[in-house]
Design a protein that fits this description.
The chain is α+β, with helices and mostly antiparallel strands and 88 residues long. It is built from 3 helices and 5 strands.
């Protein structure tokens, strides 16, 4: 299970019509694509990652195995950067 770090905010940017990830400690922001936005919303709602992967695979029409590989690589990156915490 994952948790969004306390210094991270996920915000809707109405001007750009997208969601952004904002690192409040470092003043860094990233524009999120639809997949990243859906994944972080799942995490914020304490959903199981496997359920998120199933939803994303279904909504994009991609193979679950491909989506799973990409999602876990993205999660690893977010943990490495300190944006997500991995919970036991």
């Amino acid at each position: 299970m994952y948790k969004i770090a306390n210094h991270i905010a996920i915000e809707e940017n109405k001007e750009m019509e997208c969601r952004i990830l904002l690192d409040l400690e470092n003043g860094v922001l990233f524009q999120l694509n639809d997949t990243a936005s859906a994944l972080l919303e799942c995490i914020a709602n304490n959903a199981l990652i496997d359920d998120c992967i199933n939803d994303i695979a279904h909504s994009t029409g991609e193979e679950r195995s491909c989506v799973s590989k990409d999602i876990y690589a993205y999660l690893d990156t977010l943990v490495e950067k300190g944006y997500l915490l991995m919970l036991e």
